[in-house]
Amino acid sequence: MSKQFDVIVIGGGPGGYIAAIRAAQLGKNVACVDEWKNATGGPAPGGTCTNVGCIPSKALLQSSEHFEQASHHFADHGITVKGLSMDAAKMVARKDAVVKQNNDGILYLFKKNKVSFFHGRASFVKALDGAYEIKVAGAAEETLVGQQIIVATGSHARALPGAAFDESMVLSNEGALALTEVPKKLGLIGSGVIGLEMGSVWRRLGSEVTLLEGLPDFLGAVDQQIAKEAHKAFVKQGLKIELGVKVGDIKVGKKGVSVAWTNAKGEAQTLDVDKLIVSIGRVPNTSGLNAEAVGLKLDERGAIVVDGDCKTNLPGVWAVGDVVRGPMLAHKAEEEGVAVAERIAGQHGHVNFTTIPWVIYTSPEIAWVGRTEQQLKSDGVAYKAGTFPFLANGRARALGDTTGMVKMLADATTDEILGVHIVGPMASELIAECVLAMEFRASSEDMARVCHAHPSLSESTKEAALAVDKRTLNF
Ligand code: NAI
Predict the structure, then answer these.
(1) What is the best residue among 170, 171, 188, 194 to mutate for testing ligand 1's pocket, by most ligand atoms within 8 Å of CB?
(2) Cβ neighbours of residue 322 under 8 Å, at least 6 residues apart?
(3) DSSP state, residue 385
(4) Among 52, 291, 321, 452, which residue is least crowded by beta carbons within 10 Å?
(5) pTM metric for this prediction
(6) What number is the average pLDDT over the span 63-91?
(7) DSSP alpha helix (H) spans, 26-138
C-alpha cells in the first residue's frame, strides 16, 4: 500500500528540510526522504552542509583558530601558555558531536512540524494522474505517492581525471574533514572556497600547505582589491598559493601523493605531499533519481533544468539548491525551498538572486554581496567606491585583528549601494547589514546616517559608506 502525501521532498539538506518544514507550516501533508547515514547507520539529515560541509568545517575552523591564537597570539595579551599541545582526533570527535546535534535538531523539527521522515534513497517510479509514485529504498522500503515533488538532492565533489577520491590519500571535502592526524605536507588542487577553508584549518594545526590553482587570478569571482588583500594575508600566514598552474599526472602511493604540475611560466614542477585534497568544484546529484522514468529534463552537467521559479519541465515537480543552476550555497537552497513551498501553497514565494551573500570562512574572513568593481566596469556602470580599513577601527584594535577592510560600491548618480566587499574579522556577520541595506535598495548615504554602536566592527561598514562621499571620520 502506498502512502499518500501532498508534497514529497527528496533530500534533507538545507534546501529540502527547510522546504518540507515550510510546506508543513502552510498546512500540507509532507514527507521528506533522505538517505544520509551516520556512523551507526542511523539517519543523518542535513545533507552536505550539516554532515561534511558548512557545519563541520566551521567546527574545525574554530578549533584550529583557538590553537593558532594560543600558539601565536595569547602572548600579545600577556597570557603565557606552557606545554601547549593539540589532539587532532579529539578535535574531529568534537566536530562529529556538533554535526550530531544538528542532525538531531532536524529530526526534532520534522516531528514538531509533523513532517513524515523516511530514511532511504528516493527515486521516481512513474507519473500518475496528477501525482508521482516515488520508491524509497533503504532502512525503510516504501512506496509513496505525492501530488507535488520537490527535488533537493544536492551535489558531490568533482574528481580530477586520473585521481579518484579514495578518502585516504586523495580527499574530497569528506576526507578533508575526517583526518585524525595532521599531515606534514598537504596539497590542495583548486584554491576556491573549500581549498582555502580546508587549507587554513590544516595549516593552523601545523601542515605545510600548498594550493595549486588553475586560474591566473586569485579568487577571480571576488572583488580583486579584496582578493589581493586576502592573498597577502594568507601568504603571510604561510599558505603557498601557486596560480595559473596546469596539473599533470598524479601518482598515489601508500605513503604519499606526487603531483606533476607546470607553473605559470611553463616550468615543470613536482609536489610531493602526504595527503591531497581536490577541491575543483561540485557536480549535481541526479544519477540514482531515475529521472528518465518520468522524463525529468537535465542539462549537460546533469543539473535539473528549472525556470526562475524552480519549476522543472514536469507539472508538479520542482527542484532547488545545488541540483539546479546558481551558486552552490546552503542559504540560496533554503531561500529556494521556502519560495517553492509557498508557491505550492498558492502564495508568491520570491528569491532575490542579486542579494545572496557569499562568505569564505578563512581568517581573515571574506564576505560580499552584490557586484564587484570589475563587474561594474564590464557592465559599464558609473560607480563611486569607498573603503575603510579595520586598522582604523577601535574594536578591531582591541580584538588584535586589524587585517583587511570594508569596501562599498554605490551608483554614481543615484547613490544606491551596488556591492559591499569585506575582508577582515567577522566579515560573515558584518555582511548581513549590507544585504539588508541592498534588499531595501538603500543608498550609501542611508547607511552613513544609521547610528552604529561604538565600539564595534560594524562602525567600519558605516565608515565605508561615509568614504563613498569622501568623508570618513576616523581615517
Ligand atoms: P570553487 O568553485 O569555489 O573553487 C574551485 C577552484 O578550483 C576554482 O578556483 C577553479 O579555478 C579551480 N580549478 C578547477 N579545476 C582545476 C584544475 N584542474 N586544476 C587547478 N585548479 C582547478 O569550488 P570548491 O572550492 O570545490 O567548492 C565547491 C562549492 O561548494 C562552491 O560552489 C561553494 O559555493 C560551495 N562551498 C561554499 C562554502 C561557503 O559558502 N563558505 C564552503 C565550501 C563550499
Answers:
(1) 194
(2) 13, 15, 48, 154, 155, 282, 284, 285, 328, 333
(3) E
(4) 452
(5) 0.96
(6) 95
(7) 47-52, 54-68, 88-112
Which residues surround ligand 1 with Cβ inside 6 Å? 160, 189-195, 197, 212-215, 247, 279-282, 327-329, 359-361
Q: Residue 247 in contact with residue 279, Cβ under 8 Å?
A: no
DSSP 289: S
Give the distance (Å) from ligand 1 centre to CA of residue 281: 4
Mean per-residue pLDDT, 414-420: 98
Q: Is residue 290 predicted with pLDDT exceeding 80?
A: yes
DSSP element (H, E) containing 6 = strand 3-10
156-184 pLDDT, tens per residue?
999 999 999 999 999 999 999 999 999 99
CA–CA distance, 444 with 387 (Å, rounded to integer): 12
156 part of the active site: no
Residue 140 has pLDDT above 70, yes or no: no
**pLDDT score at 1:** 82
By alpha-carbon position, which residue is closest to atom 43 of ligand 1? Answer: 194
Q: Is omega for the bond preceding 284 within 30 degrees of 0, making it cis?
A: no
Q: Which one-letter DSSP state was computed for residue 148?
A: E
Ligand 1, atom 30, lies closest to the CA of 328
CA-to-CA dists, residue 14 to 44, 123, 153, 296, 333, angstroms: 13, 19, 10, 22, 6
Distance CA 155, CA 283 (A): 5
Pocket test for ligand 1, best of 282, 368, 431 (most atoms within 8 A of CB): 282
Which residue has the CA at smallest separation from atom 15 of ligand 1? Answer: 280
**In this structure, are residues 309 and 185 in contact, taking their beta carbons and an 8 Å threshold?**
no
Which domains, ranges and CATH numbers included, belong to the chain?
3-157+283-351 (3.50.50.60), 170-280 (3.50.50.60), 355-468 (3.30.390.30)
pLDDT given at position 149: 98
Rg over CA atoms, the chain? 24
> To 10 degrees, the CA torsion angle through 117, 121, 125, 127?
50
What is the 16 CA–ligand 1 centroid distance (Å)?
Answer: 23
* Rounded Cα–Cα distance for residues 443 and 53 (Å): 35
Q: Is the distance from CB of 227 to CB of 219 less than 8 angstroms?
A: yes
Q: Which atom of ligand 1 is nearest to the CA of 279?
A: 26
Helices and strands in the chain, H and E counts: 13, 22
β strands within 279-381, DSSP E = 282-284, 317-319, 358-360, 365-370
